[in-house]
Hints:
mainly alpha
Amino acid sequence: MNDDAVLLETARCSLRGQAS
Length: 20
């Protein structure tokens, strides 16, 4: 996995967690 992909996935998880 590329660093960019990891950052994007992490950002998605963070947004999802905050939205909950």
